[in-house]
Amino acid sequence: MSPGPLLLVHAHPDDETITCGGVMARAVAAGVPTTLITCTRGERGEVIPSGLQHLTGDALGEYREGELARACAALGVTDHRWLGGAGTWQDSGMVLAGEGIRAAAPETIEPGAFAGRDVDDQVEALVTVLREVAPRAVLTYDERGGYGHPDHVRAHEITMAAVAAVDPDATAITVHATAAAHDEVDAGLEALRRRAWLPLPVPPVDDLPTVPDATITTRIALGGARVAKLAALRAHATQISVYDDGREPPAFALSNGLAQPVLGAECFVHLRGPAGTRDDLFPPS
Questions:
Q1: How far apart are CA 96 and CA 106, in angstroms?
Q2: Is the pLDDT of residue 146 over 70?
Q3: Torsion of CA 147, 244, 225, 20, to 10 degrees
């Protein structure tokens, strides 16, 4: 990997680990300065463990702060920041849109929610961090927010605006979107269907947000970093269940109870700035 720095912009605690946990662990292990920005505390997340379902609102947000701290420790990330400070913007919530895990904005978004009206303040807060960190590569979501959550969409919007403000000529900062390669996910799901012991339904690949494999511009093999990713997934226990019997691939599930594979690589699509290579998020020096 390049000397970096690397900066990631994610909407809620757990998003960073699901999409980029292995890359962060690899980057930190390689000595790449890595900064994680989280935009909300995920106060409207659905809680999986029955013993924690009393947590709602600010109480859930505070609990998820601790989960994220434990996940960062598992990944080795020491520079984590809440955009604008913890609790400045709250989880906007979502509604399901069709089958699987695709989402959309709720009919009403509260004024203090991240997908509300403070976009200029959010861009300004992110510009401040970009100027301080001076990253060579930035990771966030695509224009659809990956799976449609309004906070993911807003995270994409402010990231692109902030990077354009800091690097208007698109010569210094490379921006990539997290992505799931359709055929790789499909193969992982098929392997999960052969696990008779797995106590979860395995969805068809079309119920998950994927992109055609040919559109993937960078694919990072995780190797041993996947062990750290699995530990970080377990740290987000209110949101994620992990199933691992030692065979390929391990599985995780969100509150919808649908099994998804924890693949051996994380994939990205180039959005802006100098292009990297198939196996490196950073452009050649």
A1: 9
A2: yes
A3: 10
* Residue partners of 85: CB distance under 8 A and separation at least 6: none
Which domains, and CATH codes, for the chain? 6-180+214-227+266-272 (3.40.50.10320)
What span, in angstroms and rounded, lies between the C-alpha atoms of 54 and 209? 30
Strand pairing report for 6-10 and 34-38: parallel
Under 8 Å between Cβ of 24 and 8 = yes
Q: What is the pLDDT of residue 135?
A: 97
Assess contact for 157 and 11: CB atoms under 8 A: no
pTM, entire model: 0.95
Of 2 and 60, the structure prediction assigns the larger pLDDT to: 60
